[in-house]
Amino acid sequence: MEMWLWSETETRTRQWVAGGSRPPELSSLPADVVSSWVEDRKFILRGWCLIFSVLATLMVLSVVDGRLAYLQGSYTGFLGIWTDCRKHKCANLGQVPVLIHMSMGFMMLALILCLTLLPTMCLSFQPVFRRLTKIDLVFSSLSFSVGFLIVLSLTLFVVNCETLQPRPQVSYLVTTYLCWAAGALMLWTGALSYLNHLGIWRKGTSLKARRVSNRRWALQQNTSRRISQQQSDADQEHTVDLPSALNPSSLSKQSHTSFSGQ
Fold first, then answer.
1. Are strands 67-72 and 169-172 parallel, antiparallel or unpaired?
2. Residue spans with biased composition (Polar residues) (predicted)?
3. Is 21 strand, coil or helix?
4. In CATH, what number is assigned to the domain containing residue 80?
5. How far is CA 96 from CA 82, 92, 93, 101, 164, in A?
């Protein structure tokens, strides 16, 4: 009985996902059971976005070291955004690096947005924020902004290095590639957050998610039917086991005997 009920519910759920009308069995489902899979999917995808954002932030923080490239030739030394010339040999460009200063400003803004995004995403898992329907859109905008600022900052830095005259030999350090990866990861995080806001994967994941909810519903229905069946059987047994004195035939016999005795 349980397997038949589960198979029938799954078949009608597939028809619903394929574009058919909602089966009447699912109409009796509680609202929290029907919509729980949507909320769970949003939280799971938002959790992945949080993980990607943390990784990207750690990668961006590597820029604090300051060294992004090493120049050889007319300008020998390290070049970066916040290079500590007291610890490392800095390249003397002999001119005001306007592009590097712009790169520094964009990178600082990206770090500020990163440090704002992470606590906000952590707080979004609290029950008080579950009613905010466009919070994933806000996370998407912040992630896209951070990724764009990181890419813009690194682009300006690379343009500055490649346009030096006379042109030196430029060797980019691991920190530069980590920052590029951080920018790409933040852009990917923004895309995931936007898809989570649109619910574009709802149709693809609905069948698997509804199976869990429908299986719970089928088990609940089967349990309730068993309880009602047991109660019905108990009532029938109680009716059969009534004292024979209460039966009409017994009462008629008793009355006939009493009249005969008189």
1. antiparallel
2. 221-233, 246-262
3. coil
4. 1.20.140.150
5. 15, 10, 8, 9, 12
Domain count, the chain: 2
Quick one: 156 and 218 in the same domain? Answer: no
DSSP 168-201: -EEEE-HHHHHHHHHHHHHHHHHHHHHHHHHTTT
Amino acid letter, 188? W
Rounded to two decimals, what is the model's pTM? 0.64
Q: What is the pLDDT of residues 104-147, one digit of tens each?
A: 899 999 999 999 999 999 988 888 777 777 888 999 999 999 99
Is the same domain home to 103 and 220? Answer: no
Q: Report the C-alpha gap between 114 and 185 in whole angstroms.
A: 12
Say which residues have a Cβ less than 8 Å from residue 213's Cβ, sequence separation at least 6: 29, 33, 34, 36, 37
Place of tokens 């936007």: 194
Q: In what order do the strands lie in the sheet with 67-72?
A: 77-80, 67-72, 169-172
Matching residue, tokens 């005259």: 165
- Separation in Å, CA 204 to CA 18, 60, 165, 239: 10, 34, 55, 54
Q: Which domain holds residue 192?
A: 31-200
Considering the domain architecture, whether residues 99 and 68 belong to the same structural domain is answered as: yes
Q: Note whether 66 and 160 are same-domain residues.
A: yes
Identify whether 97 is part of a domain: yes
The reply to whether 143 falls in a domain is: yes
Both 185 and 213 in one domain: the answer is: no
Based on the domain organization, do 213 and 102 belong to the same domain?
Answer: no
Task: Convert the pLDDT of each residue in 5-24 to its tens digit.
Answer: 445 555 555 554 444 444 44
Q: Determine the Cα–Cα distance for residues 245 and 18; give it in Å rounded to an integer.
A: 63
